[in-house]
Amino acid sequence: MESEVAAALQKHLLQHIRRGRYQEDLCFAMWKPSTGRTRTTAVLTEVILPTTDERRLHGGASFRAHYLERVAETAMSRNAGIAFIHSHFTPGWQGMSQQDVCTEESTVPSILGGTGLPLVGLTMGTDGALSARFWNRVGRRQYKRRWCGSVRVVGNDFDVTFMEKLAPKPEFKEVLKRTYSAWGEDKQNILARLHCGVVGLGSVGAIVAESLARMGVQTISLIDFDRVEEHNLDRLVHATVDDIGRYKVDVAGEHIYKHATADQVDVRVHKKSVTRERGQAAALDCDVLFSCVDRPWPRQVLNMLAYAHHIPVVDGGVHVRVKSDGTMRSAEWGAHVAVSGRACLECLGQFDPANVTLERQGFLDDPSYIQGLPRNHILRMNENVFGFGLCAAGMMVSQFLSMVVRPVGIGNPGVQTYHFATGMMDNDFEVQCNPGCLYLEHAATGDRFPYPVVDMDDSTEELGDSGPRLGRGGHPGVRFWAWLRRILMQFASK
Questions:
Q1: Which among 198, 231, 223 is positioned nearest to 213, based on CA atoms?
Q2: Whole-angstrom Cα distance, residue 176 to residue 181?
Q3: β-strand 159-162 against 142-147: which pairing, if any?
Q4: Closest-CA residue to 451 (of 442, 464, 461, 460)
Q5: Which of 290, 281, 107 is nearest to 197 (CA)?
């Protein structure tokens, strides 16, 4: 949910407890489904507060039938599901009393019948932490509670509450001591359990992925359908001449698995573009996404995920301008986070919808079309060097850490741009989405975002939507085949 939704819930549900009264409270909210490859998420959209006569307060709290009827009518009119939220008197992730279970379970049939979506139940502790569960139909008049692994609040704030049974606190190795000593074990417990996705494993993305693995992130998804080419070798970390022709995700995956410092490592490689259904589904499994792409269409897809699905997208890149005589005019690199409550990538000028249309029609893959553009056109500016990519990746990782760690309470350092020629850094804290922004208008719509931004998977890409998971106890053949391939290539070269 967005920070504003979480704030509205806290204000209502904890109002009596904060005044020193032994009194719970309750309310309903709307939600939309967000469906990834292996994960289903409920995106809360708005809170529907009760009027005075729609609930009873008696230490505990109970709602009246006409409150639920009003909420159900609202949900059906907005094509949304219903979430039921109440407060408890203790902090942290909350369990359920038998009365809680009976209340939610008895409400499921009418909600499921009216909306076609399961009831989502949430409980708020005294510290504002939320626990959650889905109530799914498993048979005739039979419903089963399925606990969620985490509840995430995004926006200017970024808070995650984990269910310890499904997402236990990690065991930290001694090699990580200097890392988590910088911000404490509590923040490291959050950082390590986040599922981070890197979209685009080029010069910037490969460094970002390496940084995440070194900092102890346990689950990393790598999404890219591109292969290593000779012209990548001057800036693609880990890649050698022996890797030419291999998928970039395979090269990066093998190395970051070996370098990872977490006790339990799960590296997931997806040989798909995020502009395809299965590539997008892989991205929807993530808690945070890193946009390391250089095309407008993938950026548009990631922008949609940031707003419709409430997945923070850390975006960045390098922009180099060269004079006609071949000398450098200027170079900038920057980073920012796109998510509800902050400016989107289109409003920041990170992609042009007109160029998205050109890419979807195939013009950006047509060399004759690209050559016909002016030399200084944005689509022809592909100059880059390893040092600049390294700096851009560092700024993106810094934005991610600011969002999670929030040093001295600051989680948003603004839109950052570094100017190479002058050595000046810009930090823009005021930039917001333009009036009429499409993504702001359709925020929190999840799978029901009204405009198609991805294509169906086709046979032109690698069969299968993902490669093996490179985790301890995972696919053991990956490293063997990589070793065998190197041996065969050495014999071939002789």
A1: 198
A2: 8
A3: unpaired
A4: 442
A5: 290
In which element (H, E) is residue 192 found? helix 185-193
From the CB of residue 367, how many other CB atoms can be counted at a distance below 10 Å? 8
138 HSE (CA, 13 A, CB side): 9
**Cβ 400 vs Cβ 318: under 8 Å:** no
Q: For residue 58, what are its two tokens?
A: 């008696």
Say if CB 55 and CB 32 are below 8 A apart.
no
| pTM of structure | 0.90
Measure the CA–CA gap between 214 and 179, rounded to whole angstroms. Answer: 9
Contacts of 288 (CB under 8 A, 6+ apart): 194, 195, 196, 197, 311, 312, 313, 314, 400, 403
Phi, psi of 286 (to 5 degrees): -95, 155
Helices (H), 215-313: 248-259, 277-284, 296-308
Strand pairing report for 313-322 and 288-291 = parallel
Whole-angstrom Cα distance, residue 399 to residue 175? 24
Distance CA 351, CA 313 (A): 14
Instruction: Indicate the burial class of 354 (C-beta count within 10 angstroms; 0-12, 13-18, 19 or more).
Output: exposed
Per-residue pLDDT for the chain (494 aa), expressed as one digit of tens each? 999 999 999 999 999 999 999 999 999 999 999 999 999 999 999 999 999 999 999 999 999 999 999 999 999 999 999 999 999 999 999 999 999 999 999 999 999 999 999 999 999 999 999 999 999 999 888 899 999 999 999 998 899 999 999 999 998 888 888 888 999 999 999 999 999 999 999 999 999 999 999 999 999 999 999 999 998 999 999 999 999 999 999 999 999 999 999 988 999 999 999 999 999 999 999 999 999 998 999 999 999 999 999 999 999 988 888 888 878 888 899 999 999 989 999 999 999 999 999 888 887 765 655 455 566 656 555 667 899 999 999 999 999 999 999 999 999 999 999 999 999 999 998 889 999 999 999 999 999 999 989 988 764 444 344 444 555 433 444 445 445 555 555 555 55
Residue 479 has φ and ψ, to the nearest 5°, of -70, -30
